[in-house]
Amino acid sequence: MKQGKYDHKKIEEKWQKKWLDEKIFTPDVKSARDPFYNLWMYPYPSAEGLHAGHAFSSTGSDIYGRFMRMRGKDVFQPIGYDSFGIHSENYALKIGEHPQKMLERTTKHYEYQLKKLGHGYDWTRTVTVSEPNYYRWTQWLFLKLFEAGLAYQKEAEVNFCPSCKTVVADEQVISGACERCGSQVERKSLKQWFFRITDYAERLLEGHKKIDWSERVVIAQKNWIGRSEGAEIKFKVQDADFEIKVFTTRPDTLFGATFMVVSPSYAKNNLLKFVDEERKSEVESYIRKSEQKSVNDLERDKTGVFLGLLAVNPANDTPMPVFVADYVLDTYGTGAVMGVPAHDERDFEFAQKYHLKVIPVIDSNNDYSKSAYSGEGKIINSGDWDGKKYPDDFKFILDYIKKKGWGEKKVSYHLRDWLISRQRYWGPPIPLVYCESCAKKGLSYFSLNKKLLRKDQSDWNPAGWWPVPEDDLPVLLPNLKNWRPEGSGKGPLAAYPDFYETKCPHCGAKAVRETDVSDTFLDSSWYFLRYPSVGYDNVPFDSEITEKWLPVDLYFGGAEHSVLHLMYARFITMVLYDLGLISFDEPFPRFFAHGLMIKDGAKMSKSRGNVVNPDEYIEKYGADTLRLYLMFMGPMDGYPDFRDEGIEGMRRFVERVFRLLNLDGVFLEEKDAAILKTKMHQTIKKVTEDIEKFGYNTAIAQIMTFVNFLEGLAPFKGQTFKGGIWEEAIRNLTLLLAPFAPHLAEEVWQTRFAKSKGAFKSIHLESWPEYDPSLIVEDTVKIPVQVNGKLRSVLEIQAQDSKNENKVIELAKADSKVNKWLEGKKIKKTIFVPGKLLSFVV
Ligand SMILES: [Zn+2]
Ligand SMILES: [Zn+2]
Can you give the pTM of this predicted structure? Predict the structure, then answer.
């Protein structure tokens, strides 16, 4: 066989084309026998293109897919683009290009790059979420939620990014800043659409028990859901027909409550109407100012304004002053807090500032002129509760509160409903219509008495709202000239009567379309359902195909999506399950959270100028070298460090492997053949087990050790010796390399091992090698031999002889390196540890 130069460009282009032509990564979704859905989190096609971090994680996913395919699975590995959303739109704004035009270019670039990496994607079933044939079904999904009673519109204080000029969900605010652009987020009161994800809080927690996810991801979700048990207590407002409801996890401190604080939006929506005229302007201006503050500022200074109202503590009938204070966020509990300055640090600070009473109700030696005591302990100054303890007497206290009618036990969650509307352009228009005429009659979709998953709609006013009929989908996003956000609280579509003027689907009167678009996380909350059904244009997902391929067998992606994407996708899946549209309620039973690649010891970023572009490396070293290097750098879930020296070393290794795999044949002595056989089976075992647990770096290390060993056996090259163990070892090595270096492995396979006649069969459709456990044990054992405690030689002995004392002594004495220390001396003592050690004392 010819020993050609390793020309990566020629080899890689050739096989990429062949794989595509032969459709080897395109399973028959209808008739597949043993389906395995291998999914990589789809990228958002940024203008900069795919970076090496994407290459790192997508290669990790691809290796697993190839491995499972060789183990006999019908692997489906799709790819698509998260092309809607603020991220794309913001970049389009920056470069002054229409997002549609920009994305046509960037998705093409991504496709080119992903193909160059040699990944085994099914390119016949891609998804681009900004295309009407996809977002038609995203709108359909919105309708399903609306029609189930799981969507509602409400005036709410929301996070507003002044730079993105839109609202952002709580989850998308990272320590006070917009997750997309980094600007400090403001708060505004605006009408918004929400999904009732909080109805599913308990299910989302329960579901964790049946999924195989890394612990840190589950913990992040648990923290975000933030379940806490406590009580909801009602405080009557004096001279007003109103009760303030407060959730507290410390009902044991109720007798110590001396004031109340409510959030600005709570004050505005519920209490402002009771405020005296002379105070009103001060209160209103405080509310206005607080809306302009960033979340971080709120945490820093605790300011407030007395509303002139008194609420009554039900426990001791004491009137307590009510304040509006912007350190109380709507995201906690109800937006109202009972101030217990003796036992809460923030309440204490506030009480100091406004000279409010501090009443200790938990026994401690604390100095209440200096600080609060927030620990637990014996209850004091609390009537019947004195001497009780919290949480030991949790039940007693809650029963007491309930019996007296002060309130009741309640479970609270940090999780808020999913804010789904965006006052932006680049998303699917929300498929709802508002009819003034129906609204006047109090008519809405909910007055038709359809079956709802959520019956109670009393928390909003749905009058006038109708879903767009399914047959009218998609509601097309018009190609606007002026698509820039104005920041007025309305999206760009609101300026286009051609878009919003329509007829009421119910009564036919003149009506208007909703002009907000939906959050991009809705696009990604169901894309995995679409992939196998691409091509089925009359359904979002074909039920038979979905039954066959879902849930996803392995989901591979970044841990940074723990609380956003992964939570939303789980919620949507649960809703579809409840609607009887699918038969499973967890979309990703197995999720692997990969780590983050760094470059020369630092996080990759444009400002550091250390962003690795995979294209250059593929051009120079080849995709196989890059893939092997990316996987060899470190553990898949760690922070591997990309270094140029490292990839050069890998290229040299690849050339050596290619040479070795092309060696004609090697004549081996019987002893060497036996050792080779053992090493080969050991290597198959280690590589197999490591890939199963994503230990790609150690799998490659084992392959390298095996290559070194084979090279050590190769001094007889030139002699032809076909067949036998050498050929078997080379064959298996080629197969083991296939997931990591797919092009190189294919090249060797087709020229050396594939049958010359008949149809093309790719190495990637061959069977993964098996190992024989009985052959793993080494035939020979190394036994160190000591004389007077000094190591003099190491004997290599047949395994079966190594436990035979007489035999080992005999062999030791025959060894010249031992013998010279024994000569003319008398052996006083012999210590033998079977199979391990021989020691003479002379
Ligand atoms: Zn922003
Ligand atoms: Zn109507």
Answer: 0.84
